[in-house]
Predict the 3D structure of the following.
Amino acid sequence: MLEILRKDGKKRVGKLKTVHGTVNTPFFLPIATKGAVKNLSPEELRDLGAEIILGNTYHLWLRPGHKLVEKAGGLQRFMNWDGPVLTDSGGYQVFSLAGNKINRGNTGKIKLSEEGVEFSDPIDGKKNFMTPERSIEIQLALGSDIIMVLDECPPYPCSREYAKKSLERTTRWAARCFGYFHKKVAKDKKKYKNGRPLLFCIIQGSVYKNLRISSAKQLLGIGFSAQGGPASGWDGYAIGGVAVGEPREKMREILEWVLPMLPENRPRYLMGLGRPEELVFAVNHGVDMFDCVIPTRNARHASLFVWKDKKKNIKNKVFYKSINITNEKFKKDFSLIDKACKCYTCQKYTRAYLRHLFSVREPLAGRLATIHNLKFYQDLMKLLQKIN
RNA sequence: GCGGCCAUCGUUCAAUGGUAGGACUACGGGUUGUGGUCCCGUUAACUUGGGUUCAAUUCCCAAUGGUCGCC
């Protein structure tokens, strides 16, 4: 349940309660695929203002294994993160390991069937079979606070026929996840006596209006028709299958089609997004949660977000720019990265020094850049949590 | 001193009697539910002087520089 504190048009500001703590919405999840945000310690993440992070079911299942993480006391204790964790179901890997253009050069093979999906481990080539039930089982073992259903994220472009077939299977998988999740949670009353994890479904349907609407309708039907248990619908609704290469205008349309259909008091999660201006747009249309590799990956590749002015006025059409710190023009630039930023990097290090670190490939480069970019995103979310 | 081998982007290594290619560097761009320090693009070279040939970076001679061996 999302506690909505204030509203401004479609925009909502509130709090989301999870087993490992309450999170202010709207929020951004830094990505810790394999149990670590690349380059950062959990303490540093906390200092940047992060309240919740994302881990990945598929990766943690393969290494070190969900049983081991469970034995360690859950992912939070294993990695020394004392806040909530959302786990992605492994559904995205159906897409990202299939050799599409977003993930170039990947030679991984997958086999999709009604039962589930077969992946080959990109490291040792071993075959692994993921099903909706297994995904839930793994996420429960990991100690996840927010569990995602296994879905298929179809590529773009995608025919209407395939998108329909795919979304319908995603719906059937969601129903299986729902049933299995509530059965397991009901069974282990002791473990969940202080609250259970949240379970989110994922709306698909590619760029087709009637398919998106039908996906949402089908999923809205599942929660309430399930038998027994404490079920009362989904704990949250995710919009998946966006930012996979479709025209930018489409993402906006999809939000406009789907968001009005969703219950007010449940969080909405736009998966995999996005650029700063996309987050602003989506929050203003009623989205509460985001995750994206952009701030962390771009940081490792020397691309930094810089506020346009000290006031950080996100109402401005262009409120930031992104700079490539390896550009020659920064060679003798002894100014700080971003005067408007209060992060550790921006307090202490010059552009010229950071450029140097990147050009000689010192690991500190990626660290300092990651600290800054994540701080930029967290500051952006803080601004979005304000209502004037 | 004598003999052999070599000389090509900034570096390193190819190929070729007719438009000289890669890797690294440099420069610029990209990255949207993360395997990856990743991906894409641009700039950039035939040591010099003769000779053979329609045409030489390529074949021949010499110079210069380098390298290996011998004295």
